[in-house]
Amino acid sequence: MTAKQRNVRKAKADTREYAKVKQVMVEAAVELMAGEGFRKFRFEQLAERVGYNRATIYRYFDSKRDLTSAVMMALMQEITADIIRQTAGNHVTRESFTESLYQIVIKLRTHPRYAIVMDAHNIETFARLSREYFSDITTRMLEKFLVADSAQPMLKPGLNMHETVDWLMHQIISYGFLGIPGDDPQQQKSYLNKMVVSVILD
Protein backbone atom coordinates (compact mmCIF):
# COMPACT_ATOMS: atom_id res chain seq x y z
CA MET A 1 0.00 0.00 0.00
CA THR A 2 1.40 3.38 -1.00
CA ALA A 3 1.57 6.40 1.28
CA LYS A 4 -1.15 8.06 -0.78
CA GLN A 5 -3.47 5.07 -0.35
CA ARG A 6 -2.83 5.07 3.40
CA ASN A 7 -3.73 8.76 3.50
CA VAL A 8 -7.01 8.00 1.75
CA ARG A 9 -7.96 5.43 4.38
CA LYS A 10 -6.95 7.80 7.14
CA ALA A 11 -9.03 10.52 5.50
CA LYS A 12 -12.19 8.55 6.29
CA ALA A 13 -11.68 9.49 9.92
CA ASP A 14 -10.68 13.05 9.09
CA THR A 15 -13.60 14.88 7.49
CA ARG A 16 -11.52 17.87 6.42
CA GLU A 17 -8.89 15.73 4.68
CA TYR A 18 -11.58 13.57 3.10
CA ALA A 19 -13.30 16.66 1.70
CA LYS A 20 -9.99 17.99 0.42
CA VAL A 21 -9.21 14.80 -1.51
CA LYS A 22 -12.75 14.69 -2.85
CA GLN A 23 -12.47 18.27 -4.08
CA VAL A 24 -9.24 17.40 -5.92
CA MET A 25 -11.09 14.58 -7.66
CA VAL A 26 -14.01 16.83 -8.57
CA GLU A 27 -11.74 19.49 -10.06
CA ALA A 28 -9.84 16.85 -12.04
CA ALA A 29 -13.15 15.44 -13.30
CA VAL A 30 -14.24 18.93 -14.42
CA GLU A 31 -11.06 19.32 -16.47
CA LEU A 32 -11.39 15.87 -18.01
CA MET A 33 -15.05 16.30 -18.87
CA ALA A 34 -14.39 19.74 -20.35
CA GLY A 35 -11.58 18.34 -22.48
CA GLU A 36 -12.87 14.90 -23.44
CA GLY A 37 -16.60 15.45 -23.21
CA PHE A 38 -18.98 14.02 -20.65
CA ARG A 39 -19.91 10.91 -22.61
CA LYS A 40 -16.28 9.86 -23.15
CA PHE A 41 -15.29 10.38 -19.53
CA ARG A 42 -14.29 7.24 -17.59
CA PHE A 43 -13.31 6.63 -13.98
CA GLU A 44 -10.04 5.14 -15.21
CA GLN A 45 -9.10 8.56 -16.62
CA LEU A 46 -9.83 10.23 -13.31
CA ALA A 47 -7.85 7.62 -11.38
CA GLU A 48 -4.85 8.19 -13.64
CA ARG A 49 -5.13 11.98 -13.37
CA VAL A 50 -5.28 12.11 -9.55
CA GLY A 51 -2.93 9.20 -8.92
CA TYR A 52 -5.35 6.83 -7.19
CA ASN A 53 -6.70 3.51 -8.38
CA ARG A 54 -10.28 3.07 -9.55
CA ALA A 55 -11.34 1.34 -6.34
CA THR A 56 -10.26 4.39 -4.37
CA ILE A 57 -12.35 6.67 -6.59
CA TYR A 58 -15.40 4.56 -5.74
CA ARG A 59 -14.82 5.22 -2.04
CA TYR A 60 -15.66 8.83 -2.76
CA PHE A 61 -18.25 8.44 -5.51
CA ASP A 62 -20.65 5.52 -5.83
CA SER A 63 -21.14 5.97 -9.57
CA LYS A 64 -20.54 8.26 -12.53
CA ARG A 65 -23.91 9.82 -11.78
CA ASP A 66 -22.82 10.56 -8.21
CA LEU A 67 -19.61 12.16 -9.47
CA THR A 68 -21.53 14.10 -12.11
CA SER A 69 -23.78 15.59 -9.44
CA ALA A 70 -20.74 16.68 -7.44
CA VAL A 71 -19.16 18.23 -10.53
CA MET A 72 -22.32 20.09 -11.46
CA MET A 73 -22.77 21.41 -7.93
CA ALA A 74 -19.19 22.68 -7.93
CA LEU A 75 -19.67 24.45 -11.25
CA MET A 76 -22.94 26.05 -10.22
CA GLN A 77 -21.36 27.22 -6.99
CA GLU A 78 -18.61 28.85 -9.08
CA ILE A 79 -21.15 30.79 -11.11
CA THR A 80 -23.16 31.94 -8.12
CA ALA A 81 -20.00 32.91 -6.24
CA ASP A 82 -18.96 35.11 -9.17
CA ILE A 83 -22.32 36.86 -9.18
CA ILE A 84 -22.29 37.32 -5.40
CA ARG A 85 -18.88 38.98 -5.67
CA GLN A 86 -20.09 41.24 -8.46
CA THR A 87 -23.12 42.42 -6.51
CA ALA A 88 -21.66 42.49 -2.99
CA GLY A 89 -22.34 45.80 -1.29
CA ASN A 90 -24.26 47.14 -4.27
CA HIS A 91 -27.92 48.01 -4.48
CA VAL A 92 -29.44 45.63 -7.00
CA THR A 93 -31.32 47.36 -9.79
CA ARG A 94 -33.51 45.79 -12.42
CA GLU A 95 -30.66 46.25 -14.90
CA SER A 96 -28.04 44.59 -12.69
CA PHE A 97 -30.46 41.79 -11.83
CA THR A 98 -31.13 41.19 -15.53
CA GLU A 99 -27.40 41.33 -16.26
CA SER A 100 -26.71 38.65 -13.65
CA LEU A 101 -29.34 36.33 -15.12
CA TYR A 102 -27.83 36.97 -18.55
CA GLN A 103 -24.33 36.07 -17.33
CA ILE A 104 -25.61 32.79 -15.88
CA VAL A 105 -27.07 31.76 -19.23
CA ILE A 106 -24.05 32.89 -21.25
CA LYS A 107 -21.60 31.00 -19.04
CA LEU A 108 -23.68 27.86 -19.26
CA ARG A 109 -23.92 28.07 -23.04
CA THR A 110 -20.44 29.22 -24.05
CA HIS A 111 -17.79 28.27 -21.48
CA PRO A 112 -16.23 24.82 -22.13
CA ARG A 113 -15.97 24.28 -18.39
CA TYR A 114 -19.76 24.23 -18.13
CA ALA A 115 -20.41 21.95 -21.10
CA ILE A 116 -21.25 19.07 -18.76
CA VAL A 117 -24.07 21.12 -17.25
CA MET A 118 -25.61 21.62 -20.67
CA ASP A 119 -25.30 17.98 -21.76
CA ALA A 120 -28.84 16.81 -22.49
CA HIS A 121 -28.04 13.57 -20.68
CA ASN A 122 -27.84 15.56 -17.45
CA ILE A 123 -30.93 17.72 -17.82
CA GLU A 124 -32.81 16.18 -14.88
CA THR A 125 -29.83 16.45 -12.55
CA PHE A 126 -29.19 20.01 -13.67
CA ALA A 127 -32.81 21.04 -13.16
CA ARG A 128 -32.85 19.57 -9.65
CA LEU A 129 -29.54 21.05 -8.53
CA SER A 130 -30.06 24.43 -10.16
CA ARG A 131 -33.16 25.03 -8.08
CA GLU A 132 -30.99 24.68 -5.00
CA TYR A 133 -27.96 26.69 -6.08
CA PHE A 134 -29.15 29.17 -8.69
CA SER A 135 -32.35 29.83 -6.78
CA ASP A 136 -30.23 30.73 -3.76
CA ILE A 137 -28.46 33.58 -5.56
CA THR A 138 -31.66 34.67 -7.28
CA THR A 139 -33.47 34.81 -3.94
CA ARG A 140 -30.67 36.87 -2.41
CA MET A 141 -30.75 39.32 -5.28
CA LEU A 142 -34.53 39.61 -5.24
CA GLU A 143 -34.43 40.29 -1.51
CA LYS A 144 -31.94 43.10 -2.15
CA PHE A 145 -34.02 44.32 -5.09
CA LEU A 146 -37.33 44.26 -3.28
CA VAL A 147 -36.41 46.68 -0.53
CA ALA A 148 -39.24 47.33 1.92
CA ASP A 149 -39.71 50.87 0.70
CA SER A 150 -42.66 52.29 -1.20
CA ALA A 151 -40.27 53.87 -3.71
CA GLN A 152 -38.78 50.48 -4.62
CA PRO A 153 -40.21 47.88 -7.03
CA MET A 154 -42.21 45.04 -5.49
CA LEU A 155 -43.48 41.69 -6.67
CA LYS A 156 -46.71 41.85 -8.60
CA PRO A 157 -49.90 40.96 -6.71
CA GLY A 158 -50.48 37.25 -6.21
CA LEU A 159 -46.78 36.31 -6.40
CA ASN A 160 -44.54 35.29 -3.54
CA MET A 161 -40.77 34.90 -3.41
CA HIS A 162 -40.78 31.11 -3.74
CA GLU A 163 -43.07 31.12 -6.78
CA THR A 164 -41.12 33.90 -8.44
CA VAL A 165 -37.72 32.27 -7.95
CA ASP A 166 -39.06 28.91 -9.13
CA TRP A 167 -40.45 30.50 -12.29
CA LEU A 168 -37.25 32.44 -12.98
CA MET A 169 -35.17 29.28 -12.58
CA HIS A 170 -37.42 27.43 -14.99
CA GLN A 171 -36.81 30.18 -17.55
CA ILE A 172 -33.05 30.22 -16.99
CA ILE A 173 -32.85 26.44 -17.39
CA SER A 174 -34.78 26.68 -20.65
CA TYR A 175 -32.59 29.50 -21.97
CA GLY A 176 -29.48 27.61 -20.89
CA PHE A 177 -30.41 24.75 -23.20
CA LEU A 178 -32.20 26.63 -25.98
CA GLY A 179 -30.62 30.09 -25.89
CA ILE A 180 -32.13 33.49 -25.20
CA PRO A 181 -34.32 34.90 -27.99
CA GLY A 182 -32.60 37.76 -29.83
CA ASP A 183 -29.88 38.28 -32.44
CA ASP A 184 -27.38 40.09 -30.21
CA PRO A 185 -26.62 40.69 -26.50
CA GLN A 186 -28.66 43.89 -26.39
CA GLN A 187 -31.78 42.18 -27.72
CA GLN A 188 -31.25 39.21 -25.43
CA LYS A 189 -30.88 41.40 -22.35
CA SER A 190 -33.96 43.34 -23.41
CA TYR A 191 -35.86 40.05 -23.59
CA LEU A 192 -34.67 39.04 -20.12
CA ASN A 193 -35.60 42.46 -18.78
CA LYS A 194 -39.15 41.97 -20.05
CA MET A 195 -39.17 38.64 -18.23
CA VAL A 196 -38.13 40.37 -15.00
CA VAL A 197 -40.68 43.16 -15.54
CA SER A 198 -43.39 40.50 -15.83
CA VAL A 199 -42.98 39.68 -12.13
CA ILE A 200 -41.86 43.04 -10.76
CA LEU A 201 -44.23 45.93 -10.14
CA ASP A 202 -42.79 49.42 -10.65
UniProtKB/TrEMBL annotation:
<dbReference type="InterPro" id="IPR001647">
    <property type="entry name" value="HTH_TetR"/>
</dbReference>
<dbReference type="InterPro" id="IPR050109">
    <property type="entry name" value="HTH-type_TetR-like_transc_reg"/>
</dbReference>
<feature type="domain" description="HTH tetR-type">
    <location>
        <begin position="19"/>
        <end position="79"/>
    </location>
</feature>
<dbReference type="GO" id="GO:0000976">
    <property type="term" value="F:transcription cis-regulatory region binding"/>
</dbReference>
<dbReference type="InterPro" id="IPR009057">
    <property type="entry name" value="Homeodomain-like_sf"/>
</dbReference>
<protein>
    <submittedName>
        <fullName>Transcriptional regulator</fullName>
    </submittedName>
</protein>
<keyword id="KW-0804">Transcription</keyword>
<feature type="DNA-binding region" description="H-T-H motif">
    <location>
        <begin position="42"/>
        <end position="61"/>
    </location>
</feature>
<dbReference type="Pfam" id="PF00440">
    <property type="entry name" value="TetR_N"/>
</dbReference>
<keyword id="KW-0805">Transcription regulation</keyword>
<keyword id="KW-0238">DNA-binding</keyword>
<dbReference type="GO" id="GO:0003700">
    <property type="term" value="F:DNA-binding transcription factor activity"/>
</dbReference>
